[in-house]
Design goal:
The protein is mostly beta strands. The protein has strands spanning 13-14, 21-25, 31-35, 41-42, 53-61, 73-83, 89-100, 105-111, 119-120, 125-134, 138-149, 154-165. The strands form 3 sheets. Strands 7, 8, 9, 11 and 12 form a 5-stranded antiparallel beta sheet that branches. It has a 4-stranded antiparallel beta sheet with strand order 1-2-3-4, with no helix packed on it. Strand 2 (21-25) and strand 3 form a beta hairpin. The radius of gyration is 18 Å and the shape is elongated. The chain starts with 12 loop residues before the first strand and ends in a 6-residue tail after the last strand.
């Protein structure tokens, strides 16, 4: 079975014209974000601002792409990410934990989602569809998105666990 495709996370320069930041690894695994224009390290949360994304997910079993005889079950998942906070923020990277019915866990890390690092103003949403395959007809996914607000604040958005399963058939 081929694991889901992903890009390796690296601490590189990200610039989309709006959020020019350099990522630095600090002690004890702490990641710091340096605002390239100002040169200062952003570590302290702005107590006045709200940083929040809401994530909703719908799944679908892809029978035409699956091959149960070879233990290959393919699923699509449609994700809606909405900025429900008070500050514009950009989704920088993702981290998924995919668990099949045999408790085999695949870990996926990568930059952005489906090749994009969307910048969402308060109230805006971004939708994408992706997919994955696993060796069992049931499983689950959970994870988080790493985001950076316009003011340099970094925050994580927890992705609620969701189930991947074949549709139930009544006989």
């Amino acid at each position: 079975m081929t694991p889901p495709y992903c890009l390796a996370w690296c601490g590189n320069f990200v610039c989309n014209g709006l959020l020019p930041y350099i990522y630095e690894q600090g002690s004890a695994g702490t990641t710091y974000i340096r605002n390239k224009k100002q040169g200062n390290l952003q570590r302290k949360r702005n107590q006045m601002a709200s940083y929040e994304f809401t994530v909703t997910i719908n799944t679908q079993y892809l029978e035409e792409q699956s091959d149960p005889a070879r233990s290959n079950y393919v699923f699509a998942y449609a994700v809606t990410i909405k900025n429900t906070g008070q500050v514009a923020a950009q989704l920088i990277s993702r981290h998924w934990l995919i668990t099949d019915a045999n408790n085999h866990v695949q870990e996926v890390r990568g930059l952005g989602v489906v090749g994009n690092q969307p910048l969402l103003q308060p109230g805006e949403q971004y939708e994408y569809t992706s997919g994955m395959s696993m060796a069992t007809p049931q499983g689950s996914m959970t994870g988080e998105y790493f985001c950076v607000a316009e003011d340099g604040e970094q925050f994580e958005v927890k992705i609620p666990e969701f189930v991947l399963s074949l549709p139930r058939t009544l006989h």
